[in-house]
Every structure is written in C-alpha cells, then in structure tokens.
Amino acid sequence: MPAQTDRQTAPQGPSASGTTPAGSTPTGSIRRLHLPQKLRNLELFLLIIACAINAGAVVLVQLGALGTIDTQLVLLGAGLSFLVFGLHVAMRFVARDADPFILPIATLLNGIGIAMIYRIDIANNDAGWESASVRQIAWSAIAIVAAIVVMLVIRNHRILFRYTYIAGFVAVILLLLPLIPGLGHEVNGARVWISFGSAATFQPGEIAKIALAVFFAGYLVRNRDSLSMVGKKFLGMRFPRLRDLGPILVLWALSMSVIIFQRDLGTALLYFGLFLVMLYVSTGRLSWIVLGMTLFVGGAIVASQTLSYVNGRFTNWLDAFNPAVYDADGGSYQLVQGIFGLAKGGLIGTGLGQGRPDITPVPQSDYIIASLGEELGLAGIFAILALYLLFVARGFRIGFAGQDDFGKLLGVGLAFVVALQCFIVIGGVTRIIPLTGLTTPFLAAGGSSLVANWIIVALLLRLSDTVRNQPRLVV
Amino acid sequence: MNRELKRVSVVVLLMFVALLVSTTVIQGFQADNLAADARNTRTLYDSYSVERGPILVAGEPVAQSMPAGDDYKFLRTYSNGPLYAPITGFIPINGAPTGLEHALNGELSGTSNAQFFDKLNAIITGQKPTGAAVEVTIDPVAQQAAWDALGDLTGSVVVTEPKTGRILAMVSKPSFDPNTLAVHNNEEVTSTYDALLADPADPLINRAIGDLNPPGSVFKLVVVAAALESGKFTPESTFPNPGTFQLPGTNTIVRNTEGGNCGGGATVTIATALRLSCNIPMAELGLELGDKAIRDMAEKFGFNTDYTIPLDVAQSRYPRVLDDAQTALSAFGQYEVRATPLQMAMVSSAIANDGVLMQPNLVDQILAPNLSKLEVFEPMEVRRVMSAENAATLTLMMVNNVNDGAASNATIDGVEVAGKTGTAENGEDDPYTLWFTGFAPANDPQYAITVLIEDGGGLGQTGYGNLLAAPVAQQVLEAVLNK
To answer: ipTM > 0.90?
Structure first.
C-alpha cells in the first residue's frame, strides 16, 4: 500500500504526497473533480464479474461433486446477487463517490465461501435448512440488508464520533453477553456464543469488534495529546506517564479476561492488536507497541502455563506431527489433516468438488481456507489472499486520504481488523502461529461474522464516499 | 499520522507475505512429503480411487480393481490369490503394498513419469485416470504344475527360460490369500496381517527371492565351473580319495554323504565327485582353487549382488573373507554360503545358456490403458560367466548326475535332463534344506528349474535332495515339456 493520494481526485499524483501528513501543509491548489457515476459503473462492471465467478463456482461444485446441475442453489445465489445489486443501487443515491472495489471484493469472497460450504454440505449429505450453505445464504442476505440499512442511516460517519462512549459500552455488553447463564452457549470449549433457543446462535464478539473500532477511534482522537506528548524518554523511546497507562491496562485486562473466561485466544488477540495499532497510528509512539506487546505476550505466556487449553494450542502448534500430540484428545489431528488437505491441493488444486475437504474436521468454518486450498490450490489461495490484501488496502487508502482524524482512524481500524483476523486464522491453519478459533472474514460459515463484516463494508464505503466527496486540499 | 499508517501498511503487507510463504511451503515444497505421510488418508483414498491397472498372466488378470461402492471406489481382487501371491503381493488400505503392487506401484496407479502425459490428458479431457496393466512372464501351466508338485512341502519352485531370463514360474509355499488383506476394513486387515506375520511357517515371505538357505551340494556347480574356467582342471583331474578328511588347521572331520570314499579307488576324478556328489574331493578342489577363484565365479553367477526383477531379490552370499578350513566347507555349499532359489536358477540358466547369464525378469511389458506399450522388457545379457565349451562340459556332467548319479529321481523318459541335487545342513539338530537345480532338454535347454524344500521336507535329517526335491523338478519339467 504505497502512500499516495487519491488518483481519481488528483490525477497528476504528486510524487512526494505521502510523506507529508495530509492536510497539514496546504501547499497545493484546491481541486474538486466530480466523477460520480463513473465509479459506480466500474463497480457495477466488477460486481457482474464477481457474481458470474460465484455462479460459476457453484456450478463447478455441482458438476465436480454431484455430476449434475441443481438449479435450487443457483437460484438462491441469484437472489443474493439481487440484494448486492440493491446495495449498489442504494449507493448510487447515497454514496455516489464510494470506493468501487470494496463491494465486488466482499461479494466475491462471500460467494466463494458459499460455494465451498455448499461443496462440504454435498460431501456430508446435508440439504435444506439443515445444510450450512442454505443458512449461510440466509445470513448473507441478512448481512447485506444490514449493510444497506447502515448505508442509508449513517449518512455521515461523524455521527459515530458522538457515540464514542456508547460504542465502548455496547462493546463491553456484547462481550459479556455469552457469560450470562442461560443465554451463553459453549462450543468446543469457547464461550463466545449466545443462543436464542436452539434455532439461532450468535457470536456477539464479532459485532463488538466494530463497536470497539468506533470507540477506539473516538477515544484516541479525543485523548491522543495526553497519550503522545508527555512522558519520559528511555532507550530512545518516549514512554507514557504512569497515569496515562489506564486505557491500555483496561484493554489488556479485557483481553486477558476473554482468554480466561471465554477461553478464546483469537478474539483476545484480535481486540488487543486492533487497539495497539490504532493507538500507535493516533499517537505515533512506538513505545505503546512495545509496552502492549510485552503485556500481551507476557499474559499469553502465563496463560499457556496455567490454562490447559492455551497450553494445548501451543503444543499442537509446535509439535503438530508428533504422533502423541496427533492422537491426543484435542490434539493436532485437525491441524495436520488441514495441512494434508492443503498439500493435496498443490499448486493448482484438485478442482472444485473433486477433493476431500470433508476429511478435516469443521472444514466449512475455521478450516475453510484449507478446504479452498485443497480444491483451488496455491493459485486459488494466492488469489484469495490478494483479494483480502486489496480490500485492506482500500481501507487504508481512506486512512491516507481522509480529512478528519476520526474517519482516518476508523477506516484504518476497520481495515486492519479484517487483515489481522485473516492473519490469525490462516496463520493458525498454516502453522505460522498457534491455531485459535476465529472466522475467516466473508468466507467462513457463521452468521455473526458475516453481519459484522458486511457492516464493515458499509462503513468503509461510507468513509470512502466522504473522503472523495469533500473539497479537499491536495498536497 | 500518515507516517505511522505507512509503517502499519508495511506490517500488514508482511503479515500477508508470511501467509503467502507458509501456504507456498505447504502446498509447494512440502506437498510430496506430506502426501507420503502414513496418516494422510487422502493419499490412501487416491491410490484406491484411480482404477489401478491389472496384473496379467497370459492375458488373464490375476489382480484387478473392481468397482466398490465405498470411499475407496475400487476393490482390489486377486483371482487364484495364493498361487500368485508371491508375484502380485497385495495392497492394503492401511499399510505399504508388497510384491509387484509395490514394485510397480507408480505404473499400476498411473502416477509413473512415463504416464505423465496420459495424466495431463486425463485432467484436460476430464476422464478418470487409470493405471497401466502389467503383463508378467509367468506361464500359468508352469506355475500351476510347480504349485501342485510342491504339494504341502514348505519351499519354493522357480522355473526360468535360460535363453531370456524370463521367469516362468515362481511358487512359494505356504502361501496366503491376498484378497484377505485387500478388504476395506482396517481392523480386519490388521488382524489378518498380524496372524500371518505370527505364523511360524512365514507365509508372507516369498521364498523364491526372499529367503536365504545354505545351497549345499548345488553350489558344487559353481566350484566345478571355477575349476574348468581356471584352465588347470578338466573333469578327469584326479584327487586323493580318503574316507575322512581333516580340515586344515582344525580338528573338524569332513565325510562324504554316503560314508566311506567316493566310488572306490585311491583317486577320484572331478566328474565322479560331482556325479556322486562327494564332499571330500570338492573340499580338496576348493583348497587348490582358493577362495578367490570360487568367489569370482560365484559373483559372476550373481552372488553378492542386488537384483530387481523388478521385485527386490535378497542378496545371495559367498563370504568375502575365508581361511582354508572355511574355503573347504564353502566348496560344498556350507559354512556361510547362502543362496535364494532364484540365484540357483541363475546358475543353472547360465550353464544351460552356453555360459551366458541373462538378467532374470518377471515382467514382459507394461501397457497403458489405450494399450500402447509404456515399457517393454527385452532380454538382457548380464555377462558371460564361462566359455561355451566349459558350459557344455558342465552340462554333460549334470546329465550324468541325473542319468547315473545322485539326481536319479529327476529322469524323464525321452528327454535328457541335466541337474544337481543338494542336501544342506543348517545346524547341529536342525532339519536339512533340500535342493534341486537343473534344466531340460539338455541338448537344447528350454526350461531351467530350481526347487527348494525347507524344514527337511518334514523328514528332519533323513530326507535328501534326490528323495524330495528331484521328483518335484521332474514333475514340473514333465508338465511344461508335454505342454
């Protein structure tokens, strides 16, 4: 992500633009280029391609795994495409200058995810409402409608700035919900779900990450002076005053309690990583990162020694192929089978519907990337990672080009949370880091994750529209 | 703020680079190793889900893949399983394949390099990949005759074609049914396999190529060949003919099998010693030749060398270092000389083939599913072991051995058989190992045969080669010659 100004608004693209903080030295001329429908037309074109790829993927799955074409799921997918185009049309009215790449990327990832989940349903002989793919389509519909609502309701992101502390409060409530007896629901040892009867379960922590990003952005914009200006210099870094350590300690305590009470390493890492990066971007002080990393790594090491589930995760990671670890209850069986699946895919994969991703446990959620890697190969994984990287880059662009610090921080935070989540999940599956339970954004089966990520899409679109729509200084 | 943002961008980029690297390592560099991991059930299912090529004997499949309605898609079926088990081997769902299933796994499963373009073609055209068919050299008549002739004895029969090295029969008894090890049930396979492994009769061993025994008197052929090739001896060369012989530098006494001296007289010729299979003259001859000359000849015949046919053949041994006493014992196939039946078949075959040793071979050709020939195994000369004249001389001596000597039970009416029996000692009280090796017809050798009978043929130390092994050879030779 090279630091550069927005190419559409500043076609000349001055070379030194990125090195000076935007908006601080108004040396250039004020320009305003209005190319509204051009962006939307590009988006429409890309959306059509994305939907065509998705439909193709579903058809290939059917041909590969069933040998015939079943129109029911194609029709359901078409209904979903209809909603996506609804979001596109809504943007033509309320966010004409929004980024044209974000929506097609999200659509494509969502669709490929559905195709793979459907493929695993076929292997498991699941059909109808019992099948994960139909539920995933339903959740996708809910998520896209939620995105349309967010797009229509939040016409200006600065409204969110007013609700900084409410957002923080909401985040904490959402995190606490699963711990309430009767409402909370435990899956595989992690207590991060809430259930409404037996029909629907929801992971409020996914929504909490958005609330947290809003809260962090608002809080840091208000308080960054005290967090960045004062303090003692030590080892070449300016360390904060003791009394300014409050926020980081609170967040650290929150993360640690997620690890201890909800038994969810991944979510804790996600929240804390998000906070640290936003703290660093807003204050520009490396000491926060050093401090935060020390706290978190220290906490994680203590947890790995004292909490058996954390310890198990570390053992599975470091010694996955050891037969004792492999055969142990809660051992590395799943991790190793996922790696076997990836290896089976090789460079070009077995082809959709032609591999055996169902050998790996939960191949449709935590391990969907291994399933995709098996059937689409390294080439497919690279394409998916490139899509994520592009998505994150569009978010960071808002950060670079934005005018107000709150919008910049929020855009960066939301984009970074997607990047970090990808890294935690895929890194866990490929043994870069210990495996922790998190969903792969847009791809994995899971309603709360879809809703949360589509709301992120809506917010990023809104932010990008604001960035382009405003008269601004180009430097 | 943008300076920090730039740094965070770099960190994000590095995170994704890490993911690209980790997936590349797994899917690219480590993929083959991971596929080879025994716990990788995907590889296992794959090897079953391709239609594995058949193993053909005279055009008829003895191993083939039949459609099965389970995860493995195909069930490997062996017709006449126990008869061909030493050749086909088996492919279990939870372990490594054996026999040709192992040696030609790549070809049978369609993954060998020669099939690369077929594989590519199958991917592009969307056809299901199929393995290649392996046509073996086995002659079903010879195989069945050898199986029948061996009866309930523990041992092996190898029939070869001296001029080409093609293996026409390879029987090992007791055998097992490979079908019981190809079932799609882990526990069943494991329990069957464990039971076969625990069986004291070792049914899983292919005795023709995997079992080493002292060759005893059949090794005298190698010693006499060395004597003739040295140029210092003829069949009429004579040696002192005592009733007992003390090994040099030891108190050990060597006797002839029948007791007494060898055919009467103060001296005995090499021809008589071989015909009556006497030990003392051979020990004397061995000492005069020296261990190096014998070892050189043994190695020309294939001792101390690894062979693949393409099954792996256990290495037959003539010891690398010997003192005089050991040389004398080795001259009649004792001490630490060890041979597989296939090795002794190579000795007979080379003598039969005018002194030229051919590469023993079990596979005629490998055919792609479209019947194009992927690989054809042409007869291959290993080396000239001895001159044609010496081979003819030795043949004549072997004919006399059958007509008027120690291998009299191998005679066939109207056909001249050349042969040599052996009765080898194992341990003080252990049962003997009984041998016959020879070929027929002697004037134009079509078949070379080697019979190995272990465990004394059930007779402990009272059985001998001519009693048990020679009749087996005779029965098999009659069957193939009358074909």
So the answer is: no
